[in-house]
Amino acid sequence: MADGPLIVQSDRTVLLEVAHPDAESARHELAIFAELERAPEHIHTYRITRLGLWNARAAGHDADDMLATLDRWTRFPVPPSVSIDIRETVGRYGRLVIERDTVTGIGDGVLVLRSTDAAVLAEVSKNKRIQPLLIGHPSPGTYVVDAWARGHIKQELLKIGWPAEDRAGYTPGTPHPIDLDESTWSLRPYQRKAVDIFTEGGSGVVVLPCGAGKTLVGAGAMAETKTTTLILVTNTVSARQWRDELLKRTSLTAEEVGEYSGQMKEIKPVTIATYQILTAKRKGQYAHLALLDALDWGLIVYDEVHLLPAPVFKLTADLQARRRLGLTATLVREDGREGDVFSLIGPKRFDAPWKEIEAQGFISPAVCYEVRVDLPAGDRLEYAAAADDERYRLAATAPAKIGVVRRLVERHEGERILVIGQYLDQIDVLAEALDAPKITGATPVDEREVLYQAFRVGEISLLVVSKVANFSIDLPEASVAIQVSGSFGSRQEEAQRLGRLLRPKESGNTASFYTLIARDTVDQDFAQNRQRFLAEQGYSYTILDADGIAA
């Protein structure tokens, strides 16, 4: 405890001294169960939350492990109230269990809610939102749960602070032979560990950095379960990358893998569908719900689970009997629905710190820069006079950024560069100013794939892209990203955009991530929030003055 990098406070915040020699070690252990709230230069503030503690418990960390982390790195004794609170909160996970009845004789396989704590069971059974989901009380310590309500009762129990451990098992689905073809490659140790932990748990989320091979974790889970599989992805380009990777890395053939999207409606033993098609409505009804029951799926994979659209949560509540694997680089959701991911997809099963995987050489090292751009007097006056809801766009699309982008592109001549923007008119201006091809949501999928492939093989070295390139796009040789504008203060977007650069490169180059900020505007305020998640992963931003950047 002597002179550690942490200070644990009674309000469940934890302060981390960034310059301390043990700061990185402490950060990696603390991030297992605490969330970064603020990350200025010298002191970072973490908060210990109930959901963070329960996710850590589900991933195999108990209260003793978490308190040992605090005791090991803290400068002052951990307040007794915090120690007690952590033990009691962690102890809530698993006090209630959902399982199939094999004891009371009410019917083999009936869904029941059990607890050895009579007071807890009495408390939750009286809750007005949980009571309608319970349809019998055959014995002390046991309530019968309505067959359709497995997902809903987990949501409601989490809301009142009693997360249930789901041990009710899963339908095996229709068996289908799937094997990994590891003749020229093999799963990395952390990928194998993630697959094994998921397989044991049956449902849950694997958190890995972009470029660390989440798709291969999905393929590994498919090879373990050997069943018909539905894979849900963010867009059609991602669907085709999944298909190509599965054909390359597994025993599956093209006849066994189908695409269900706006362009194709194939249903095969392994079907890859987009979130967009699943949530599409016709005459007020979801038009493609039949896909969820088209086959007896034994596994459902949710790619980029932090982007799961709200309607899919509702649909997923009815899929609790099927194994569910969520894949993501970050559990951060800007809509605050992390609890629904926990309840309906499953708790976090595996999480590997970004810097740890970088140290093992599996993702590229990266340096991050915040480039502050001064607005000319005329633009500054226009910004000052604008309404609050117009100011971010004015700052984010400031014409003064264009010249800075041009100088950064010249500085990195010979490298493969992504210029990323949020606003379509700004993307048009950038593409014209840089004489570079652009990709937006309006670009046809086939044209996107042609441009991405040309970028991969080096036929073009500069692409201007909108947010369509944020997710699931495999561009391993991209070594520079210049973010000109983004979705306000989105932490998940910042992580995904840096992630475009983290795939290991043949060149071995360190990646460079630039974000351009209009000085003394809301652009700068939002940037601080955007950077929080990456700060939690051990990345820091070097502040540069745009006037000091020479080509």
From TrEMBL:
Tree of life domain: Bacteria
Pfam families hit by this protein: ERCC3_RAD25_C, Helicase_C_3, ResIII
Presence of keyword ATP-binding: yes
Catalyses which reaction(s): ATP + H2O = ADP + phosphate + H(+); Couples ATP hydrolysis with the unwinding of duplex DNA by translocating in the 3'-5' direction
UniProt-listed Enzyme Commission number(s): 5.6.2.4
Listed SMART domains: DEXDc (SM00487), HELICc (SM00490)
Helicase C-terminal domain ranges (all copies): 404-549
Keywords, alphabetical: ATP-binding, Helicase, Hydrolase, Isomerase, Nucleotide-binding
One GO MF term attached to the UniProt entry: helicase activity
InterPro entries: ATP-dep_DNA_Helicase, ERCC3_RAD25_C, Helicase/UvrB_N, Helicase_ATP-bd, Helicase_C-like, P-loop_NTPase, XPB/Ssl2_N
Helicase ATP-binding domain span: 195-349
Catalytic EC class: isomerase
Family matches, as NCBIfam families: repair_heli_XPB
Record-stated family: Belongs to the helicase family. RAD25/XPB subfamily.
Name listed for the protein in its UniProt record: DNA 3'-5' helicase
Organism annotation: Microbacterium deminutum
